[in-house]
Specification:
This protein has 253 residues and is mostly helical. It is 79% helix and 0% strand. The chain is globular. It starts with a helix and ends with a helix.
Length: 253
């Protein structure tokens, strides 16, 4: 029962997918991070299905690309993009660490968050327009699972910048050994599957994901003293953008 509740907690927190409602207990949250990647699996499966439907119905390339870019936002409710925008405001404030952490908590958006999101969106859509190879697209769809595996590992492995907030609560209640083991196993299986789908696209996408993962840890520790829920959203958004670019590059090589 705790496993089923853990799945519901993960999907209720990080997606707009309807889930049963109940009072969350600490034991229900202990393994919930293990199921975080499966939200990515749902996104990838829906994106793949949209690709097949578009080909079947002869939907225009522009419509396919724009809706493909919108689907993750629809499914997650823009949860992670919100963190990306808050982090961009904080990073580009060039203020002391304490002030940057305050900016992360500010519900208002600044100019830099809008500018950087526009930049990211243009690059992301441009990359999607180049992912015309069937296998490269499948690799990219798997990337939504991989990015959440790495994000989950960061929650239970990286230092928290604060001793409050959603991310700290998930990290402090998680069964560290069990969650790490489950996420490491899922990461390995996902990487192997991506390489099996397409060696070139898989290598480039996996390399991009791990490069962003390393950069995320370095930048978060330097700028904030650790990670927060907002920086986790920043990582997830940046990681998926990097994998989109990697998949596009694999088609062009």
């Amino acid at each position: 029962m705790h496993i089923i509740r853990g799945i519901a907690v993960a999907f209720s927190t990080y997606s707009k997918i309807p889930m049963p409602q109940f009072v969350w207990k600490e034991e229900d949250m202990r393994y919930s991070m293990c199921f975080f990647p499966w939200i990515g699996a749902v996104i990838g499966a829906i994106l793949w299905g949209w690709f097949r439907l578009s080909a079947l119905l002869g939907i225009s390339t522009l419509a396919f690309i724009l809706i493909s870019a919108a689907l993750p936002l629809i499914i997650t409710g823009g949860f992670h993009v919100d963190g990306f925008m808050d982090t961009m405001d904080a990073l580009h404030s060039y203020q002391p660490r304490e002030r940057k952490l305050e900016i992360l908590k500010d519900s208002h958006i600044g100019a830099f968050s809008v500018i950087k999101l526009a930049e990211f969106g243009l690059i992301y859509v441009a990359a999607l327009s180049q992912v015309v190879d069937y296998r490269a697209l499948e690799v990219f769809c798997c990337g939504f699972f991989l990015s959440r595996c790495l994000s989950g590992l960061s929650v239970v492995s990286f230092r928290s910048a604060k001793t409050d907030g959603m991310l700290y609560h998930f990290a402090s209640t998680a069964h560290e050994r069990g969650v790490k083991g489950a996420l490491y196993a899922q990461t390995l299986l996902c990487v192997l599957f991506m390489l099996w789908l397409s060696l070139l696209a898989g290598i480039l996408a996996v390399a991009a994901a791990f490069a962003v993962f390393g950069y995320y840890r370095w930048r978060s520790y330097r700028e904030f003293g650790g990670i927060t829920g907002d920086t986790a959203g920043y990582f997830l958004t940046l990681c998926e953008g990097a994998m989109a670019v990697a998949a596009a590059v694999s088609v062009l090589i």
